[in-house]
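Replying to the earlier thread about multi-chain prediction with a worked example.

Input:
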Amino acid sequence: MADYKDIIARYTAVPGGIIEAFHAIQKEMSYLPEEAIIAAAEAFKVPVAQAYGVATFYSYLSVKSRGKNVIRICESAPCHVAGAAEVVAALEKALGIKMGETTPDGKFTLEFTECVGQCQATPVITINGKPYGDVTPDKVAGILAAY
Amino acid sequence: MAEEMRVVLRNYGKIDPLNIDDYINAGGYKALEKARSMSQADVIAEVRKSNLRGRGGAGFNAGMKWNFAYGVQADQKYVICNADEGEPGTYKDRIIMENDPHAVFEGMAICGYAIGANKGYIYCRGEYPYVVDLLNQAIAQAKAKGVLGEFDIEVRMGAGAYVCGEETALIESIEGHRGEPRYKPPFPPVSGLWGKPTIVNNVETFANVAQIIEKGGDWYAGLGAASYPGTKVLTLTGDVVNRTVIEVPTNTTIREVIFGFGGGIRDGKKFKAVQIGGTSGGFIPESLLDTPIDFDSMTAIGAVLGSGAVFVMDETRDIVDVVERIAGFFEHESCGKCAPCREGTMRMYELMKKVKSGKGTVKDIELMKKLGGVMSVACLCGLGQAAPSPVLTTITHFRADYDAKLQ
Ligand SMILES: Cc1cc2nc3c(=O)[nH]c(=O)nc-3n(C[C@H](O)[C@H](O)[C@H](O)COP(=O)(O)O)c2cc1C
Ligand code: FES
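Result:
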């Protein structure tokens, strides 16, 4: 795993690159540890409060530790009417956790998201950004098996 | 039945997006060459003549906007392609970028030449990491071929904030800040990214530009509706038979879209409502379906064309349930900078939850109307201004759904 300091160093020359750096750190660590935010603040020469303000503004960035695989379920209106609630229930049951929680083994986190732009195949979930469309409760086990 | 007309999606399914030669063999990058043989003012005049208006929701005349940035003296100017595509139910910019990335680059480069900018950014939403990869590969090919000349394009990835589609919030985000909208004026064409003159246009807007330069502004101005010419790429979702993407002339009616291209309502059910333009759009009842989809016709019926999302609901859908979900969206996506939006979206969501749970009264409906009226004028940016629209239009057109739940 790359050190977050090395990752940050790759972006300090990019104007406004702190968000790009956060993306890259999160790709490695699945969330933004506090030390990484402080290090980024130093590297980009902004107050820690400002770096933290950026990290917490965007729903894609997480300052809380998350599982290795982040499952997001779209709850926007088109997915909502297509049965997102049943998919939520099936995922919660399959993983034994509630929305917003992480499995005890640290493998999966369940989160809500708004539209991910795959609305030709509602309801939609994403796992680590990869979309799965037309999800039904009975497809859940098969999808999870790949992770 | 009306036919699809492919201007923006002219190469859809015909070329390999990751083979730049396919694009060039289909006539690509000729328009950029042509533009560069014209004067900057002539390029802008041609785009103005086409009457191309923004496809990102606000419908501003593109050539006019370019002219503002052209007229400002500055050592550096920027072109930004808005690929944040956050309106729920919308995926047309993804389809355009995935199938024809160079059409977008070419439009951006023509804009860059016209206004005097040598740097472009594409702000692509974080939900599309696979599109970011594709764009970067396509940019690398364009650079290797040298087709963009001095014009440089860089992709920046958003991070899941709907408000970052608003152009000044987007600019803040590229600068590495929280994506909060700026006070306007100054507008971006005068002072945008890092305080420099900046043109922000939607993906679909840029994808039209090369065709306009190639075939002429008059040709484009003659397509579709006169006041909002051209085509619009629409994404059909919800209870419609064909959940798909289409491109139609702007004088196509909503009825043709849903019952012609969309194939009607699923499972033999009846139509109840359609929400067009994304989640901030107004709800439209059956009686208004013969309205053409162009910007001004939609505005005239109290709705919007917006992003071109077409979300269809059948007779079994509970409007209050859907609007409550939408109110939750705005409560979550409000950036918190201005009080009318921060507080208003929260109170609106509370009231919708109350009505949905069966505890609402006629007074709550009146309160929502009043709150919505205040928000639509008092909020800083389009997010808060448009947020009450689904509530207000459904109270107008689908009051029975509310009444059935009131105490
Ligand atoms: C809350 C909000 C979200 C927006 N989201 C988008 C978006 O996702 N894509 C877009 O092109 N424009 C979006 N806009 C409109 C932009 O502010 C801007 O008008 C547009 O990018 C200009 O390009 P155009 O003239 O080509 O449409 C949004 C506006 C608001 C207020
Ligand atoms: S509404 Fe769920 S992916 Fe678009």
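Chain A has a mean pLDDT of 96.

Feel free to reuse this layout for your own posts.
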